[in-house]
Amino acid sequence: MVEARVAIPAPLSGGLLVLLALAGGDARSLRQTQTSARLAYSDTNYQCMADPEFEDKCVPKWQESCRREYNRSEHMRRKLCEGELSRNYVKIRTLVPPSDILDQWKWEFERRQFDDGFFRSQVPKFTDTGFKLVRLPEHLHEGMLARYNARRNTSRPEAGQPVFGFHCNTGHDNDDWVVDMPHDELFRQVREWIRLQLSEWTGQNVNEQTSIYGAREYHRGSICGMHTDNTETHAFSAIYQLDQQGMDEPWPLHYVTHAGEEGRALMQAGHVMLYESASGLHGRKDPLMGDEFTNIFFHFRSPDWLPAIQRILGEDNYWEQRRRFEAHHRHLTSLEDAPPKERLWRASDQCIPERSRRDPLLSEGGFMSTPPDPTRL
């Protein structure tokens, strides 16, 4: 018996949601409907097939919405609404209904809540609050801003913004771009200044750089779910606010201190937020109401950090706590456990209604809450 997927009508006025498989006449019927469709987008256990005519119709509609968002800046309109139309953000906005994203997120949500709550409670902490706002020396900031302005026209869409991404890596809400900054002597001075600030603040030998990312450009509607960072590599970190353009209102960084108190910081260009990123919950609960907000991220650790984390990740700690949680609550799943789905768009289908950038999907998914300590549940 030959298997084929079963098409189930979607809760839209267009598009078929294709699930698991039967055989025979159903298979032949479905293949006939797909003869003109092509693979337009794919992610973990999910893909979109679309007639080319559907994309030709719906991408211009999205462009109209984009032009309204950036009606005050010709540069932003050209960059974000007219160019790089094959980037993930455009594909996701025109091919993946929000209901599909919310359904897939459910497979991952509780596991991520468990991890954030567990590591936030278990990893070492070295300061009273976990967050400290400072300012880069003016001559360093002016030099970095000049470097960025000289290269900002080389900006390109950020790779790896998946449709089911979390935290700051959500392809539906975030249209993020990247500018490669030269790691020259000026950049080295900025990095060293930040490293020394982290060492003095934490009292630790912050001597190993594990990651530097950016300059990352956030755009209208960008958001970042509350989270902690990579446990093994992101012990002591800094967010350098490099530049912001066309701001209608400030874009606060939200955080939760080690004592559980919520706070927010309104960062201006030249500000640097030092933070214990593996233990300090942080994010941006409000969508960006501005044209562009550009940050560079620095991550470090000390010689003692990784051995301590490996003990926490050991069989008798993390996995024991997780097994105990699952025994008393529910099995924790991931996107890989979700059943495969395929969305089929025909030329006659209506386009997905454009969701306002002031209404981020990540908030509806529940990713702005503070996860509890699962060892206390």
Keywords:
377 residues; disordered N terminus; signal; alpha+beta; seven-stranded antiparallel sheet
Question: What is this structure, in a nutshell?
Answer:
Helix content is 33%, strand content 25%. It is α+β, with helices and mostly antiparallel strands and 377 residues long.
Q: How would the blueprint of this fold be written?
A:
Blueprint lengths: L3 E6 L6 E7 L2 H9 L4 E6 L2 E5 L1 H18 L4 H9 L5 H8 L2 H8 L3 H14 L8 E5 L2 H14 L4 E2 L19 E2 L6 H18 L5 E12 L4 E4 L8 E12 L5 E4 L5 E4 L5 E5 L5 E4 L5 E12 L3 H8 L2 H14 L12 E5 L15 H4 L13
Parallel strand pairs: 4-16
Antiparallel strand pairs: 1-2, 2-16, 3-4, 5-13, 6-7, 7-8, 8-15, 9-14, 10-13, 10-15, 11-12, 11-14
Helix pairs in contact: 2-3, 2-4, 7-8
Number of strands: 16
Q: State the strand order across the main sheet.
A: 5-13-10-15-8-7-6
Overall mean confidence score, pLDDT: 91
Q: What is the distance, rounded to the nearest whole angstrom, between the alpha carbons of the first and last residues?
A: 48 Å
Proportion of residues in extended strands: 25-35%
Number of helices: 11
Largest sheet: 7 strands, antiparallel
Would you mind describing this structure in some detail?
Residues 1-27 form the signal peptide. Keywords: Signal. Residues 355-377 are annotated as: Disordered. There is one protein chain. This protein is of the alpha+beta class. It has eleven helices and 16 strands. The protein has a seven-stranded antiparallel sheet, with helices on one face. A five-stranded mixed sheet has the order 1-2-16-4-3. Strand 11 and strand 12 (262-265) form a beta hairpin. Helix 2 (52-69) runs antiparallel to helix 3 (74-82), helix 2 crosses helix 4 (88-95) and helix 7 (138-151) packs across helix 8.
